[in-house]
Amino acid sequence: MNVPDPAPQHLWLARLLGEWTWMTEAVPGHDHPVMTGTETFRPIGPLWVQGIGGADGQISQMTLGFDTRTGRFNGTWLGAMMAHLWVYDGQLDASGTRLSLDSTGPSFADDGTLARYRDEIEIVSDNERVLRASYENADGTWTHFMTTRYRRA
After folding, report:
1. Can you say how many angstroms the Cα of residue 103 is from the centroid of all Cα atoms in its chain?
2. pLDDT digits over 64-80, tens only?
3. Which one of 3, 14, 41, 137 has the fewest CB atoms closer than 10 angstroms to its CB?
4. Cα angle vertex 39, ends 49, 80, to 5°?
5. 84 in Cβ contact with 105 (< 8 Å)
6. CA 80 to CA 60: how far, in whole Å?
7. How far, in Å, CA of 84 to CA of 56, rounded?
């Protein structure tokens, strides 16, 4: 199998590499706790990146890549606080600053059903990025429930 040459989308992912500090922000109407922590993104070869971070013993790991065959971003997220493996499928917006990653996971209703979620990574500058998390409502609208702001350490 031939390893594909890195595409511009792989260079976009490389902007995540490095040491980061983060803080969640309060979102009105949601009880997600305000927390602070750290995260380190490293390359896995030229085509993938891996971020490992956490706070208060709550470790999480994100992997992201870009599939040149499908033209889509893909990846995973897992956290020590839950048993569900989140599988991402995504794309960049037209401006090239926001990566939307769709996934399916346990519903906030805690009734055993699954719901659609979206994590959006916005590159604000070389030293700042923002992650916004939303879930899809039954009527097809989206509700924003978490914002995390990252600054390069």
Report:
1. 10
2. 999 999 999 999 999 99
3. 3
4. 90
5. yes
6. 6
7. 20
- Give the model confidence (pLDDT) of 97-137 as tens digits: 999 999 999 998 889 999 999 999 999 999 999 999 999 99
Could you tell me which residues come within 8 angstroms of residue 127 by beta carbon, excluding any fewer than 6 positions away? Answer: 151, 152
Residues 133, 144: contact at Cβ < 8 Å?
Answer: yes
- What is the value of pTM for the model shown? 0.94
Among residues 60, 45, 49, the alpha carbon closest in space to that of 148 is found at 60
State the Cα–Cα distance between residues 96 and 41, nearest whole angstrom: 20
How far apart (Å, rounded) are the C-alpha atoms in residues 51 and 46?
A: 15
Q: Which residues are CB-contacts of 78 (< 8 A; sequence separation ≥ 6)? A: 60, 61, 84, 85, 86
d(CA 77, CA 148): 15
DSSP assignment of 67-121, as one string?
ETTTTEEEEEEEETT-SPPEEEEEEE-TTSSEEEEEEEEE-TT-SS-EEEEEEEE
